[in-house]
Structures are given as structure tokens and as C-alpha cells.
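User: Second chain of the day. Same drill as before.
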Amino acid sequence: GGAAEGEPTAPPRTVPVNAPGGAPRFPTNYVSTTKYTPLTALPKFIYEQFTRFSNAYFLCIGVLYTFDALTPIFTGGRYSTLWTLAFVIVVAAIKDAWEDINRMRMDREVNRTRTKVLSSTGEGETTWARVKVADVVKIEKNEAIPADMLLLYSSDADGLAYIETKQLDGESNLKVKSTIPSVAEQFSTVEAAVTTQGVVECDGPNSTMYQFNGGLRLGTDPATPMTPIVYENFVLRGCTLRNTEFVYGLVINTGKDTKLMQNIKPAPVKTSRVERRTNLHYAIPLTMQFVMCIYLAIRSRYACRNLPIEAAWYLNEGPEACSANQAVRRFFTYFITFSALIPIALNVFIEIARVFHVLQVFRD
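Assistant: Same format as last time:
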């Protein structure tokens, strides 16, 4: 998938070809698809957990239990809701950490994949993470493309390259890419590929998968006309070279600037169908709970004002027993008392079931 066709979202990019001073600084080719970072992990996880209705509800109940003026329980059991909620949060944290560690391992495997880069000393190997914009790379048959690049030369007699895009769009049929004949003549050997100078001016990084426009000027004379570059001369990170012995390519976009990474959006907060339905069912007991608590708070204040409460010395009620503040406090006491209408055990079982579901998915 990609963004709707339109103008590129970034300024045009200028990439020097074998410039003596090297290329300007661009993002590295290191990629990370993890959901969390060491700095954002805790605040992001806490935010996600307590934007869930059930967790926010039981946190409120657990906090209310800790106030002596409100709680109907004065034993250690008053903290049971908080302990149970803590168990749910820890289970969710273990699940998210395990998922993110697996993403990190896959990222590390990709970033450490080897590829060939051409230099004045010939062909040298490096990792994908170390590939830079303006590098001339050599991709051999059945190797994956480490970055978005412009085809400079193909071993095919007709200057063609056959590309598999299964990793991008799921299609197994091969796409045909081509070099520019006048350009391929200048990059037919390793020596020529690392000495021929020029400059590429093209679209800036964007998420449009099937569009690329630019121009290539060979030589150092600014008056030399640009040779047009079209999408058929451009190959994307994540593709695989097939039925072609090797190609040379000029790296245009790396890392987060590649079209593949531009189309990977941040993972949304997952809400399962069971959780959405459970939240809907919570509405009924929660409404009942509010209605009963409001009624009992009003009723208790009415009874207090119409009965000789002062004579009931055994209740240990002061002169403020019938005040509006006391009625509000009684509302919260009743609210805590009727919190069992929404069982926290259901929350525990759902979280445990989610963990086992994730394990089964990874096992498959």
C-alpha cells in the first residue's frame, strides 16, 4: 500500500555520484520496527494500559479502597483490587516486552545482513545498516535490495533486471526493471563504477510506492543536460533480484527514508473484538452501580435528617453526620461496595487468554 498519488512530501533530493568530498549527511540505513524505546517504554505502556476502560475502572476502585473515610473494609483485603490489577499489568508488560524483543531480533538480523559495496579498492562487504546514500552497491542473484537505489548497470545483455516484490505487495510474479543505456555504458566495470562522477536530482523521500521521477547528469559540467530517470530505473528496499547475475545500483534513500519504511505506520493500540464487546457489556452494570449509589446516598441523607441520629450514640456520628459532604462520602462508599458488579477476575482471564493467543500465533 502507499499514499495517494500526489506531490512528494519532502524536498527534492540531490545525490552526488562518486563525489570527492562524499555525500551530504542523510539518515543511516539502520531500521527499527520496535514499538517501544528505552525512553518511551514506561510512559507509553502505562498510557496504553490505563486508557483501557477496565484497567482505569479498577485503578479508581483500588485507590478509593485506600481512603479510610471511604472504604468499608479495614483489613489487608482492601488492597486486593490493586494487587490483582498489578498482576494484570505485569502480565501485559511481559507480553508486550516479549513481542518487542522478537521485533528487535528480526530488526537485528536484517540490519546485519551482508551486501557488497564498490570502492576504489574494489568490492567490499558491509552490513545493511552501514550502507549510505551515494554508495554504489553490487546486488547478486537472489539477494535482497538493502536500500532504494537507481539501477546503473545490469549483467543482462539487454540491461534488464528481474525483481521479485513479494515482500512489498505479496505478488510472486517478477517485475522488469531496466538500466538507462547511456548510463550503463559508463558503469560497466568496477573501476568505472567508482570513478564516473555525476549527480542525481530526484523526488525527496515519500510513501508513494509506484512513483519516482528525477534526472541524472554525468560529469562535472553543470551545463550537461539531465538524463531523465523513471520508476522503471528504480528498485526498492525489500525487493529481491531474480534471474539476473548481478546489478550495480546507486543508493538514493536509506533507512526511514526508504519507501518501504515510509509505508510502515506506528502500530496502533490493539483492541480485540472480545475486549470491545466486554467494554460494551460493562456499561450495563456500571450504569446500575451509579444509579444505586446515587439513590442510596440521597436516601441515607434523607433518613439521617428525619431520624433522631443524635440519640444513636452507638453509630458514633458527629453533628456533621447529615451534611452534603457526608452524603458524597457515602456515595463513594456505596460505589466501592457495589464494585463487585464488574468482576476483576474477568479482566485477569482475558489478559491471560491474550498471552496464550500471542504464543500460538508466534508458534504458527
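The two ends are 25 Å apart (CA to CA).

User: Great, on to the next one.
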